[in-house]
TrEMBL record:
It comes from the Eukaryota. Residues 13-512 form the Major facilitator superfamily (MFS) profile domain. Keywords: Cell membrane, Membrane, Transmembrane, Transmembrane helix, Transport. It holds the Pfam family Sugar_tr. PANTHER family: FACILITATED GLUCOSE TRANSPORTER PROTEIN 1 (PTHR23503:SF8), SOLUTE CARRIER FAMILY 2 (PTHR23503). It is a multi-pass membrane protein. The chain crosses the membrane at residues 103-127, 136-156, 162-184, 196-219, 225-247, 313-335, 347-370, 377-398, 418-437, 458-478, 490-508. It is found in: Cell membrane. GO terms for biological process: fructose import across plasma membrane. Its main location: membrane. This is Major facilitator superfamily (MFS) profile domain-containing protein. Belongs to the major facilitator superfamily. Sugar transporter (TC 2.A.1.1) family.
Length: 527
């Protein structure tokens, strides 16, 4: 008889997903909507400091305090009719280009990814020493400190607090990015492992979606309320602090890492709702005996042992393929493409929120499909579907000129080609749909289905750390690449997706319904 989802199992999933996965997604998206308002605030803080110091009216003063209207700025300020009333110069609209302001904003964005990389690399040691649940509980303390720093820079008039807060929140999210999927994989029944593992990505997308809604200017994205937007991150942290202590630690961690068979038996009985768990306990005992018969795994062994090296490389490359799939490029161009379809700037912004909603919906669909179609199949469908969408998107955008950077150039150069604009929008939605189908969710939990318990913490930290590193690389490399190639940048991503599909087909194992021992035996045949 197959076990279902018991109340303790459901509570554990909710506690980790809402408190960690959703928090991760929220902090990915929370910075996007209010960036114009925050750019103004940083500028005003710098100007106020210069005025208080009686600084000379030199170039530095003009850079931060002069408010000449301009056509474009990297950090685009809101239109004059929506400009805030502030204590320095009421009623100004767009401001003069300020390279230092753009550099500060780039630093705020980059410091989050750097923190994420540090947190991800530290997570392997943390989960081995303190457990899956234990690490998530410890991480809430760091999250609370980060929220405090992010919620009060406005009152303190200190953008430096914003820097530190984003860095610490990045560390928090780096830890949160891999551990929930590992925890879910280890507490789930075999036949539900993929579906429950996919919930990590589902809650990430929900977090991104919610932050895009709450971050709208009429809601919490205004000059007075953006600190409240950042402070809302405390909600999932408090929920996790209230719920996670009520559920057990991972039985596999208790048995295989701590050697406490009795505690593992109790935890498993609570998750399954029955004491009759002989088959799962026997599987853990078999793995425990194997771990005891082998030397303790070090990071060096992960690269020298043939089997461990192979599964670690697969786990790392799954993360590389996810981040280099072009999903960030699609999101970058989405508003511009929606504009080319005749939508106003405000309507295009709401259409982009709709795109995030589609991401949530299709990730939910993948939760169901992953146990029916399998992991490898969803990855292949996702990579191939995204590749085809990228090619067609580039073709249609070339027809409409939607890749132009300057807002003053016509979007559709030839009215007879206006048909290409809505088709570009369709390709944007298809790209997101195919990403959510497999590449978005599968890599997170597939690590735990391939990598043995003895090296799981190390392999997870390396794979998730690579994910954050790739996020940083894409964020830094994409703007100049887009500037040079414009619409043709999607052909680059299509090529990467073709290689990703080929690698997945040839080297990535299908783990659906298989024990770790079965996956290991299958992979060792190809060593």
């Amino acid at each position: 008889m197959k076990e279902g989802v018991t109340k303790p199992l459901a509570l554990a999933i909710f506690a980790a997903a809402f408190g960690s996965s959703l928090l991760f997604g929220w902090n990915i998206g929370v910075i996007n909507q209010p960036q114009n308002v925050m750019g103004h605030w940083i500028r005003d803080v710098k100007c106020k400091r210069l005025m208080d110091a009686d600084a000379p009216r030199d170039d530095t003063y003009e850079k931060w305090c002069d408010k000449r209207p301009v056509e474009n700025d990297t950090i685009k300020m809101y239109p004059p009719d929506q400009a805030p009333k502030n204590e320095i110069d009421p009623g100004f609209g767009d401001v003069a280009p300020n390279p230092d302001l753009n550099a500060l904003w780039s630093f705020i964005v980059a410091i989050f990814a750097i923190g994420g990389l540090i947190g991800a690399l530290a997570s392997g040691w943390l989960v081995t020493k303190y457990g899956r649940k234990g690490t998530l509980m410890m991480n809430t303390g760091l999250g609370l400190i980060a929220v405090a720093l992010l919620a009060f820079p406005y009152l303190a008039r200190s953008y430096e607090m914003l820097f530190v807060g984003r860095f610490l929140m990045g560390v928090n999210c780096g830890i949160n990015s891999g551990i929930p999927a590992m925890y879910f994989s280890e507490i789930s029944p075999l036949h539900l492992r993929g579906a429950i593992g996919s919930l990590h990505q589902l809650f990430i997308t929900i977090g991104i979606f919610l932050s895009s809604i709450f971050g709208l200017y009429p809601i919490l994205g205004s000059e007075d309320l953006w600190p409240v937007l950042f402070a809302l991150a405390v909600v999932p942290i408090i929920v996790q602090l209230m719920t996670l202590p009520l559920v057990p630690e991972s039985p596999k961690y208790l048995y295989l890492d701590k050697g406490d068979e009795a505690a593992a038996q109790r935890a498993l009985a609570k998750f399954r709702g029955t004491e009759d768990n002989h088959e799962e306990m026997a599987e853990m005992k078999k793995e425990s005996d194997q771990i005891k018969s082998e030397p303790k795994v070090t990071i060096r062994d992960v690269f020298t042992n043939k089997f461990l090296r192979k599964v670690t490389i697969i786990a790392i490359l799954l993360m590389v393929m996810q981040q280099f799939s072009g999903i960030n490029a699609i999101m970058f161009y989405s508003t511009r493409i929606f504009n080319s379809c005749g939508l106003t700037a405000e309507a295009a912004s709401y259409a982009t929120i709709g795109l995030n909603a589609v991401n949530v919906a299709m990730t939910l669909v993948s939760v169901v499909l992953v146990e029916k179609a399998g992991r490898k199949t969803l990855l292949l469908v996702g990579f191939i579907g995204m590749g085809a969408s990228m090619v067609l998107l580039a073709v249609f955008m070339l027809q409409t000129g939607a890749g132009k950077v300057s807002e003053t150039e016509p979007i559709v150069e030839n009215p007879r080609k206006v048909w290409a604009a809505p088709l570009s929008a369709v390709m944007v939605f298809l790209g997101v749909i195919f990403f959510a189908t497999g590449p978005g969710s599968v890599p997170w939990f597939m690590i735990s289905e391939m990598v043995p318990q003895s090296s799981r913490g190390i392999a997870t930290s390396l794979a998730v750390g690579t994910n954050w590193l790739c996020t940083f690389i894409v964020g830094q490399a994409f703007p100049p690449l887009q500037e040079a190639l414009k619409e043709n940048v999607f052909f680059v991503f299509a090529s990467i997706l073709a290689l990703s599909a080929l690698y997945t087909w040839k080297f990535v194992p299908e783990t659906k319904g298989k024990t770790l021992e079965q996956v290991r035996a299958e992979l060792q045949q190809t060593l």
